[in-house]
Design a protein that fits this description.
Elements: E1 18-19, H1 38-46, E2 49-50, E3 53-64, E4 67-80, E5 86-100, H2 104-114, E6 122-124, E7 127-140, E8 158-160, H3 163-176, H4 183-193, E9 199-206, E10 211-216, E11 222-230, E12 237-246, E13 258-268, E14 275-285, E15 290-296, E16 315-321, E17 330-333, E18 336-345, E19 350-359, E20 373-376, E21 393-402, E22 406-409, E23 412-419, E24 422-433, E25 438-441, E26 444-450, E27 453-459, H5 464-485, E28 492-498, E29 512-513, E30 518-522, H6 532-539, H7 541-550, E31 558-560, H8 567-584, H9 594-604, H10 621-647, H11 649-663, E32 666-668, H12 670-681, H13 686-693, E33 700-710, E34 713-721, E35 731-740, E36 743-751, E37 755-762, E38 768-771, E39 780-781
Length: about 775
Amino acid sequence: MGDRTIPKLFLVLSVLLCTSKTLPQSDASQAAPVQTGLLALLQDYHSLRPAPEGVGITQRTVRIGRLRLELEEGVLVPLQGPSKQILGAYFEGRGIYFYQSESTADRQTLALNLSHYSVAPRLQQGTLSDPFTRALIVFGPPMLPEILPTSSSNPDHAVGVGAGLTSGFQRLWQAMGKAPVPWDHRATEASLNGNGSKYLYAEIEGKSRPVGYCYDGVLSRDESLFFFERGSRPELRWLSALSIQPISKENQGHGPAIILKDAQIRVSTDDNRSARITSDLTLQSARDGVRAMRLALLNNRADDWADWAATRNQLFVRTVKDETGRELPYSHRYHEVLVEARQAASAGDFMNLRFDTDGAVLTGLFGESYQNYFDLFLVPWFPNPEGWSTSGYTFDLKIKTRSPYLPVASGSTRASRVVGDFQELETDSPRPMTDIAVFGGKYTVQEEAFDRVTVRVYAMTARKDVMQRMPSIAYKFLHFYEGVLGAYPFEDLDIVEIPEFVAEQAPHGAFGIAPSGMVLLTSEAYTARRNYVTQYFSVGINARLAHEVAHQWFGHKAMPASSRDWWIAESGAEYMAGMAMAATEPNESLVTGFPRMFAQWQSDAKLCEDTPIEMANYLTGDSGAMKRFCLLYDRGPLVLHMLHTMVGNERFYAILKTFLDQANNGPASLEDFQKASREVLQSDMDWFFQQWFREAGTPEVRTEHTVHESGGKFTLIARATQPPGTSFKKLLIPFVVDYGAGKREVKLLFEDKPEVEGRFDLLQKPQSVAVDPSRNNLAVYR
């Protein structure tokens, strides 16, 4: 997963609306909701139009999560489809919106993301505001009856919908169709499942620029504000997030609606280009009332992942059937499939679905076509529940490729054979996993068995000596990790070559990725050093390999529970790669060892010291991408190193092992890491995680020290000072006392307030005293 470029399944957001001041109650508030099926409800959403009459309003306030709409004067019109359910609203007139950013971390991120724009709404004390003239809102299930009255309930305020208002609605409606937001799927899912989750999506035509807002009670359980950017084609828009904040706990829903328990998958290709994929899935309902089941499933593998409707490299759903063989209604859009069950499931119920799909989806990671390679990875190539809270599943996988392509796949190899012109591979995993990767290529294989683990290298361009060395190098790292983190979770480790990519697709043109039980390395890892780029990355190959092997623990045994917790995978793997390199004592002239890695972290971490680590995945723009890399691969490892040096080797690794064991191949968060720390240390270290993961900044510390002699005894008097205020951070500052002749000792001063002083007895008169000479702390000493 190290320097990886991941096609995003978009920023899927939704909204719950409250009002501080309401309009008169309508007849609709008393009407029972119209019951309809998936396809009929989607048709309703796709056909939304303004009702014949709206209502004139003045000086009204509408609150939507952290968004406040001040409707000064205008017309509010219900939006209806063929069933006449009110599923949205359109406002035209004069108003001002206010968006409140609450946490320090989100305020810093909002300000940084906003700084990319020369024309933008006003930001003052964490509140973004802008006048607006139009707003289009859609929701599910039907909401806001108190502010969307029928004309009969309030005839004095009824306003006919004229051509001018209809024209304004059409402009916003067409703009909504260009954004990759699955609002119709989310609203339909919320309506059909009836479990209290609500979804609302809004586009607001602000004075400075259009803005989008969502509050998601269905999938992400976040609310967010974002701008729209021009897509790769005129009919497309991208979302550029400004702020993403968790919704309040009482509205956070109940986790994923369905859980994948087991997958039986068959992949077959006659030409190594198009594939037939049959997926037999065993799903379990996580709560009562589940009628609509949402699973991620790609629509295509075009160049632009946001262009889900592109016709290049399409995947087609032919049928979706239940365990009786009955075909079920479904909608395949937005790289996901929404399926309606015959009847609502109760919590704990099992459901069996079969998906028959096919298409020309055997490409590279970015939709490229190769003459010697394809992959099914980093995209939802078979249906599986999406979201951060997904749990692991067992699987059985059978693949058939045309020779000379050799298939490689996740799981333990159970059978491999040649049948005529085809290569067949069978793998499975009785241990729950969270992804399945499939590769096909003109591979040469190098295999070596170590104790209970078999390491295989699959390469297309590798030199023989490189292939022969790589299994033992990989196992050396794996063995080190097992000693400090616990047993390797899988039986096999496959190291697979994937083609070298250009810089626009992956920084520096090279990277590694780690599916479950696998390590993917780009081609330069296996070849002679052809130029300065491949030479640079060949020097660092062992460190990259160590990083990817570490992902089997940080990223798989403990999966990030949310986008805020992505440091668990990347910072955890990068720091453990440094520890593995230090343990193997490499020759620095040949490979990148820990001293070089540590120096690189320290140098680069200065570039992102103004941004919290937990906000890395919420940054936008070119500078945002660079800062994300810096936060996850430079500052994050330094924070873990600081914790390591604070608590000591034994307790640090005890924290990691406790954390990984408790995650147990499932989602884990910063709060889980804090919990493991409390259990091991028997003390509260929450302040450390708050100031280093949830807050930004590098403290400037002024230190002083003197040695006082009295009666032949020596005392070190150490002082540390920081400016008071929000920039202050607690530090454990080491004063290293050197007595000469190799005799040294460390005195630790805990700065828990802006000014502290400590007195330490010394063994004898020291030759020198140095403050944090190893630079263990993220601090600037003066």
